[in-house]
Structures are given as structure tokens and as C-alpha cells.
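Hi P.,

Sorry for the delay on this. The queue was packed all week, but I finally got your sequence through. Input first:
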Amino acid sequence: MLRIISILFCLLWASSSACSSDEDCNLNGVCLSAGCVCDAGWTGSSCGLLDVLPLEVGASGMNEVPSSSSWGGSVVFSEEDHLFHMFFSEILEHCPMADWQTNSACFHAVGSSAVGPFVNKTMVIGAWCHNAIIRQTQDAHGVLYMLWHIGDGTQAGNVRNCTQGEDSAKHLRATLEGGYSNYLSYSRSVWGPWTAWNQTLLPGGCSSCWDMSVVNMAPFPLSNGTVLLGYRGTDSKHTEKLGVAIAANWSGPYRSLSPNAPIINASGEDPYLWVDRRGNFHILFHAFATMGGHAFSRALAGSWTLSDTVPYNCTISWSNGTTITYAERERPELLLDAVTGSPLVLYTAVLFETRNKTWGSSFTSAQGIKTRR
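Then the structure:
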């Protein structure tokens, strides 16, 4: 009997010591005496794993069986037509992802479900336009849609024709001479037309700063019109890290809250920033070593904590029972429940394979997330 009591005591002690604060639960749950109790959408002993469902065959985003390569996907639900609207990048002329720096354009497609299939694809901004992100906000005039992207669609002459075997190097040089520039287009309708907001969104830092140049901006509008912003900063050695910024409204100006140092001491890009139902701040991002990365904080300005749990990786299970490990999985985006703020869908850019370090075909995955609890 004494042995049984000792075993039970050890089990209870181990369970109660599994966490000491909500930070031990990645701020994706609460720490109780029995350990972490995870919010809907998260699982694992420290609530650090996205509780994803198998990817649905035939309804998995965009270009599941690619005739062209899509990259990333950002989705809003519109009350205009009660449809889900995905904005994404696609590589023109049936070129592989290796030609993204010359052939990328920004597209729009619609679906009756948040995971797709997304249909009626139309080009919104031609080459060169990349990393399209859509958000809905409010201002004094009502609903406004923000389309964030890099490139302004004025480089059509640099598009490579893959069917004719044109040299991609000369096009790449032409595109990169001016570097990457951030753009914001806006509309009162999710269908457009889109108007360019020709203002500097967030200037880079000094030549010796960690964020000498900024790109891959990820806005999160609040109900009062304030817009929070995650971004990737790059220094003179092209080290990529993450920062945060804020503006009183969608049109800016945006002010960095991390001008002196990145929010975490880890390399990464492609941030997706959001605020949970308890008011905590989170960022999903492309971590170069693990693909998925997650950082969290109780305040936007920090301090931020890098989770030691990888929220997702390159291995995806499908509804037909197959499991595939892909070459790359980047550009994470979430669709959040409008009422609870819980994650409903994980959107990512998925690369099928690399050959001789050259990127091949890719697609945009839309992976449902369990909504139990």
C-alpha cells in the first residue's frame, strides 16, 4: 500500500509541476494544478502544437495538383457575398518557384469553405507582385480592405517565358537592382478596384541597424482602427529577424516598437501576428531550421519568448491516409474565429521538392484546425 501511495504522490507531483505559469503553456492555454489546459486549436503538454486536421484531398487551398506554382495564401470572410476570399502569389508562365523573383503576380480566388477549393482565380496585380496579404479593417467611412504586398506590378517586361527557355539570370538581375519595396493597396470592396497607397509604410533603420531594411509586413487590425504590424528586418549581412510596429490607423504612419533589437534572438521571416482572447500577443513565422516557429508575449513591445515547441513542420497528413514530408513550408497565416479568436485554418506555402538546390513546384495548403474544447 505504501508503494502505491508513493507512486500516486510522484504522479501528482509531476503533473502539478508540469507548469508554473501560463508562459509554460506558450500563452496558448492556462496553467492549472494538473498542468496546461490548452485553448481550442492547440495541443501538446505545453500547448505549443497547432491541433491540425489531415489536409482534405480536393479541398486543400490552391493548386493542390499544380499546373502552376502558388505561394502563400491569406483569407478573409466577406459579408458582401458570404464567401471566403484568398489572396496569394502565383508564378506566371507555368514557371517553377525558382523564378519567383521575376514571375510572381498577386491573385484573388473565392470559396464557400475556408479550406477551399478556391475557384474563379483572377489576377489583381501583375508582375512583379509577391507575398500578398489581405486584412479587413474599419475607418470613419466604414469597412476597408488592405492588400499588403511587395512589388507594384510594373515589372511585366522582366517576366521569364519558361516554355521558350529564356535565361532567368538576366531577369533576376533586372528585378533585384531596385531591391524589394513594400506596398499597400486598399479598397472598399473585397472585389476591388484596388488603389495604391503611395506612402512609406515603415522605413528601414540605419545602415548598421538590425532592421536596415524591412519587408514581409503582417498587419493585425484592432476593432478601434489601430493596426499592429509584424515585420522582417534584415541587416547589412542579410541576417533576417523579426520586429513589431504599430499605427493609429491603417494609413499609418507605422512606428517600430523594436528599433534597437529584434523581438527574439532567432532568425526567421514571414511573420503572422495576432492577439488571442486573453489579450496575449503571438507570432507564427518561418523558422529556417524547423520551418514552423512561434513567439509570444503579454505586451506588443515585449518581452517576447521563443517557444521551444515547433508548432508545425514539413510533414502533412492527408485525408486519404497518406503522409508526405515536403521540401519547404513557409508563409504561415491563420484564419481566426470571429467570436472566440481561436485558430480555424493554417495556410502555408508548400514546396514539393528541390532539385540541385533549385525550387520546383509549390502549392498553397489550407489545413483545418480542431475546434474542440
